[in-house]
Amino acid sequence: MDYKQKLEEKIGEALGLEMAAQKAVEEFESKGLLNEHGMKGRLESMKKEANNHQIQIEQLVQTLSKSRELDHAHIQSKANEIENKISQIMKIYVGDQADSSEAVEFLCFAEGGGSNTLRDSKCNGKKS
Question: Which is deepest, 22, 44, 89, 114, by most CB within 10 Å?
């Protein structure tokens, strides 16, 4: 893999993680798992921050696609792949009968640097 492809992969991973963070908050919200102890407001802020990062990354991709001839479709494909992997891992990690603490734990783990572990997980069906 050449330098340009590695760069596309890394940008796609970053974009996918931001997309996955927003999706996770939305899913946990829809299940009513973020309503305890004022967490909803804090996690809404996290979702907005992830959305802002996503917008900034997408703008960077547009700029780099023109100036460095990066493959926008490859970046988006990688982003979608990462988003889907994180969503699958989230379902395994918290399960069908998750409670608020598990939802928050997953979000903190993913936000706090566990994202590499999540991304590289083999989805073996066990919590870390």
Answer: 89
Q: How many CB atoms lie within 10 A of CB 118?
A: 21
Return the HEC string of the chain.
CCHHHHHHHHHHHHHHHHHHHHHHHHHHHHCCCCCHHHHHHHHHHHHHHHHHHHHHHHHHHHHHHHHCCCCHHHHHHHHHHHHHHHHHHHHHHHCCCCCHHHHHHHHHHHHHHHHHHHHHCCCCCCCC
* pLDDT digit string, tens, across residues 70-83: 888 999 999 999 99
Q: Does this model's pTM top 0.85? A: no
